[in-house]
Design a protein that fits this description.
Length: 71
Amino acid sequence: MSNKNIRFSLNHMLFPSYSCLELIESAINIGVNAVELRNDLKQNSLMDVEYAHLVGLKAARNNIEILSINA
């Protein structure tokens, strides 16, 4: 039997009404250390460079890995 570690992340599609910052906060609250963000969720998307920087800072400060930004 292999001894692989199982990793979990929160995909933005689980909470499409959340902003990226709210999704990261949710990950922090439930103890998940990774998120997958979307760029196709209208006002909740990661589309602005300044906002992306803010999201990246919040993730880094809380040891949350951003695995992907996809649509």
